[in-house]
Amino acid sequence: VVLTAQQPASAFARGRGPTPRAAASSFCSNLSRIAHTLEHLASTLQDASPLECLALLVRGLGLLEKALTVSLAEEETHDGLRKSFRRMLEAAELAGKQVRASSQLPCSVENMRPPAKPNGVVFDFAVQQAKEAAVALSKGHEAGGWEAQVHEKLSLALLLFDLLGAEAAGEEAAALAPYAEHVARLLGEIEARLG
What we know:
By secondary structure, this protein is an all-alpha fold.
């Protein structure tokens, strides 16, 4: 899997902590969070687009593989990641069977679907998270207690933009950068408020 050889685009995704062990744990948590998001997105596409479902699951498996490699010393973390990996592998095998079955049909609607674009699915979801955070931010000043919800959505959006940015080149990288920078700036402001 090519993704496991690439570094996330920002220090945020790489993990943070006062010690190398804490930073490694944060890194594994970030990779796991991204992988579970990809798994969720894949589950919503399982029937409509098995190929996109499979592509998202394979990418998630690559992230979990990297997290498993980093977490070898942490048995509790490693066990949870291993269970997630097995679950996603089973889902990917099922999606693979669906893709194979649909590719063996004579020229039909299944075969006339556009090619899978998992990066588009990830990008759209990241933008949706950022928009939802903006709405919560605009309403939160009146209600209070909005910081945690906004932080959750912005941090997920930034992780997803980092994932996309890790493989982007040229124009794609230039197009993604403003999104990631804006979300990172907002996230920094929220983290400062949370103390």
